[in-house]
Specification:
single chain, 65 residues, alpha+beta, two-stranded antiparallel ribbon, 2 helices, 38% helix, 12% strand
């Protein structure tokens, strides 16, 4: 297991990771939904709930059809 160490002064809204650090973070935390923006900043996504998940599924179905 790889440990990701962040500086003590990090601001969660301004965390930047290398490609390898981001990959290891995703591998070690498969239950999290993580993304990075165009500048490489880490974005923690909230899990999709039942109602919005159903709405997304219906929307995806309409796009498919």
């Amino acid at each position: 297991m790889t440990t990701l160490t962040l500086p003590l002064t990090f601001d969660l809204q301004h965390v930047h990771l290398t490609d390898e650090q981001f990959y290891q973070l995703c591998v070690n935390n498969p239950e999290l939904v993580l993304e990075r923006d165009a500048k490489g900043a880490l974005i923690l996504m909230s899990p999709v709930g039942g109602e919005s998940g159903n709405r997304d599924l219906r929307f995806g179905g309409e796009l498919y059809l």
